[in-house]
Amino acid sequence: MALKDSVSQVLGRDALAFDETAGCLFVEVPKKRLLTCLTLLRDELGFDFLSDLFGVDNSAFYEKKMKKKKKKEDDTEEDSRSGQEESLPPRFEVIYLLLNLETNQRLQVRVRVPENDLTVETVTSLWKGANWPERECFDMFGIRFKGHPYLKRLLMWDEFPAHPLRKDYPLEGKGEERSLVYEPEGEGHWT
Amino acid sequence: MGPVKQRIANEDYVTINVGPSHPAMHGTLRAIAYVSGETVLGADLEIGYLHRGVEKLGENLSYHQFIPITDRLNYCSAIANNVAYEMAVEKLMGIEVPERAQLIRIIMTELSRIADHIVLIGILGVDLGAFTPFFYLFIQREEIYEIFEWYNGARLTNTFGRIGGVEAPLPDDFEERWSELKKGLDKAIDETDKLLTHNRIWMDRTIGVTPISVQDALSWGFTGPCLRACGLKRDLRKDEPYSLYPQFDFEIPTGKHGDVFDRYMIRMIEMRESMKIIDQAFAMYKELGSDAPLMAKVPKIIKPPEGEVYHAIESPNGELGFYIKSDGTDKPYRIKIRPPCYMIFQAFDELIQGEMISDLIACLSSLNIIAGELDR
Amino acid sequence: MNEWTIAIIKVVFIWSWTLLIATVMTWVERRGSALIQDRLGPNIAGPFGLFQPLADGIKLFTKEEFAPKHAHKILFTLGPVLFALQAFSAYAVIPFGDKIVINAKEIVLQVADVNIGFLFVLAVGSLAVYGFVVGGWGSNNKYSLLGGLRATAQLLSYEVPLGLAMLAVCMTYSSFSLREISLDQTGTFLGFLPNWGIFKQPLGFLVFIVAAYAEANRVPFDLPEAESELVAGYHTEYGGMRLGLYLFGEYVNLYTLSALMVTIYFGAWHIPYIDMSAYLSPFAYGIASFFVFFIKCAFFLWLFVWVRWTIPRFRFDQLMGLGWKSLIPLGLLNLFVTAFFIQISL
Fold this sequence. Notes:
The structure holds 3 protein chains of 3 kinds. Chain A is of the alpha/beta class. Chain A is about 25% helix and about 20% strand. Chain A has one domain (about 1-80, about 85-180): NADH:ubiquinone oxidoreductase Nqo5 subunit (Beta Polymerase, domain 2, 2-Layer Sandwich), CATH 3.30.460. Chain A has helices at about 1-10, 35-45, 60-75, 130-140, and strands at about 15-20, 25-30, 50-55, 90-100, 105-115, 120, 145. Residues about 80-85 of chain A have low confidence and may be disordered. Chain C is globular and about 60 Å long. Chains in contact: A-B, A-C, B-C. The interface of A and B includes residues 51, 150 and 164 of A.
């Protein structure tokens, strides 16, 4: 694929892995090289439009894979010699959807974010429009963006205690809204 | 303390709340405007009043069950959301939709594009004091609703289409309905044009109000009519063609300054272009006859292969995209919706700095912020 | 019947007549807007919805008289009262017809024939500002305050062009009294044009009508009560009869302004080229002049409604710009041209 070749040429060692489904190309870059890679992609290959930015929680995905693998190993009774304590890959990932306005090509860049280091550099210096998507990512997953001008919750209320889109948060919620009680101060005045 | 409040901490201002419930009727969003006299210093934005956890819901419903939920995103043009989602799933599974179904999808999407633009122009008029075009245009929107109701029974939130095609052919007398609707729409758009476009007061209120440059707009992530108003000719139907759009002949209007007047004029012209597309699509549909298939061969339980895909279409508001990650089961693993007005509304503070309160309302109306799409 | 009785009857008659017109205007507004907007309007309360104003009046009278907790107790009620007061008083000096003869007694169809009629109308009309500003302040509400501020600035600014246009008319007819101006508009000049104000003062009429729309707070000048911007401006917090006083006062203002326009520019009760008093008995002539005057007023009242539902509203700085930078120079120009013509001809 011509795009794959040019991306691996520009990023060099930073292009850790490529995935492609139905014409959508995903490239993984290391977290600490995120800003450099995105700047390179913008300057060299012309990917200067950020379409969207969001997080994905892969914990359930990997757990299912591990369970299937373990089941297969149990079934065939193989010696689990290699990769005894195979640590799971990083739990979260943040995906950036880039677009080249001249050639109309799309490229998806992903960074893996481990659970013990939930910070990513902000890209608001490159694109002003990353402001709210990063706030939403923080709101929904808990991923902090270093250098963001105003990293507060966006869709949930400010004191909401959990991060809803994580896989360990139930669909029905945990009843946090019952803690919201309205106490008018004083005798309740109008303004 | 919002970011704007911190920025203007040293100035003299009064806080005006364009609150969640406001006669300007744009859905539930809150803009805390800081004004000094009549000049707006900035606005803190608070959204999330209509957040329903749609993306989390998607992880617990099957692919088919998610279609009615996509209706409720941009409820002024529900069909565009349905079509976008279905196309994303079809892209993931590699399904090829038959031509007749694609034509029906195109006709319905363009009708809902016309409906969305009608809402915007009517509400923009009401907010600026011109109450009459609202009524002329909404009568035609009722006729569009009649067509939707005839097709599948629902007026506003039609769960249109299935993964792999559509559920029913167009009704038999669509031709008569469409020609009548065309006449009515032509007349209504002409009358609105006569009342508003060259009206001196309208021009004073909208020309030069909150302009934005192309570079700023691209940096904020603008797409759709708001980006075309700045002068960049960018439309996903022409740039990344999907479905049968390459076979149709239509124009993409662009503006010059990105102000309220440009956004309004572009939508007026786009309504007429959509009518042209529907004419051409319907002519092709008639040629296909009534034997052509409506649905591709799709298994009863949809289990896409593992993978992730992103697909976007040109909805009336801009680029509406769906990112779907599948883990091989019959429920999606992650669905992310890229709402067009989400990226546009972020720029609101920058747009209205230095303008007057009346311009704030005009700008808010012209950006077409729909809370369902904004908050999901 | 002595003078006092006649005066009281005239006052009561004109007061109830203006109130009736204000009520009917609510109906005209709603049916008229429906006509323009291709819909029906009220048609359930009585034939053609004619009892709708009655229903509205009953509603306003019987609603709970409610004031917000921290509103100023006196000012909150004083605002609408002041406004309604000035609206009704201004009509006192406008003639609503020519003489009528009952029982061989000649009665002038005008409540008070003051020989400085113009100044009286202008002065009383200025009190409308107090109605807005007191109501806006007394409501203890940011939106009302903004509405009150806007109303003050707008009304004060547009008083000047109004006065300038009227001044030019006074110069043309050499009198301040409205009755004398009406009487003067008989006959023709230049051979075929009736001696009406509009033909002698076309520019003045333009200035006057725009300033009249601004004084009446009607679209395109209805910023103080712009619904989608400021919720409802200065009458956000009002309900019940206080709101009724504001709304009716607005319609009475409209009627006063229309009557003024007809009196000074459209020949009051005269029909062009025909002298009615020659053909009718004095009693019938009085009634006929009353109706001719009223029909002309009705046209202007309809014009107010028509314009409201057709064009959008101004932004505040554009509104002030129009008043100060366009209308006042035009009014002054009109004054000079009038003076010039008076000097060289007549």
